[in-house]
Amino acid sequence: MKRRKFRRLFNVAKKSGNWTEYKRTLTDYNQALRQAKRESWRRHCEETEKAPECARLHRILSRYEQSAISSIQLENGYYTTTEKGTLEELLPVHFPGFEIILEPSGGWDGLELEFPKWTGSREGWTLSKRVISYDKLKWAVF
Question: So where are the chain's domains?
Fold first, then answer.
C-alpha cells in the first residue's frame, strides 16, 4: 500500500512541482522497506539457528541463488565454466589423493563390484571414531 501511495504522490509532485510531500513519503517508504528487510533477515537467522546442522546448511545455501556452486578461479587465472569443472577443481583441494572413476563402457548396471563384508566389530567402530570426527567432517563440508 505504501508503494502505491508513494507512486501516486510522485505523479502529483511531477505535475505540480511541490516535492515536499513526495520526499517525506519517500523517506517513510525507504525506512519501512529497510525495517522489513531487517525483520526478514532476523526471522531467517532465528529459524536457521533452530534447525539441525544438515538442515541449517541446506537452508542457508538454498535461500540465495548466488550461494550455489558456480565458478572458481583456477591457478592459471581462468575461471571454471561448468559445475562439473568447479567440482573437479575442488576435489583435489579438499580430498588429496582422490581418484576419479570414469563410467565403464557398458555402464554401471552390468558391473560386478566386490565389497568386503564388514561385520561392524568393536575394533572397527573404535577405528571409525578415531578416523571420523565432527571437526573433520565439518572441515570437509565447510
Answer: 1-63, 67-94
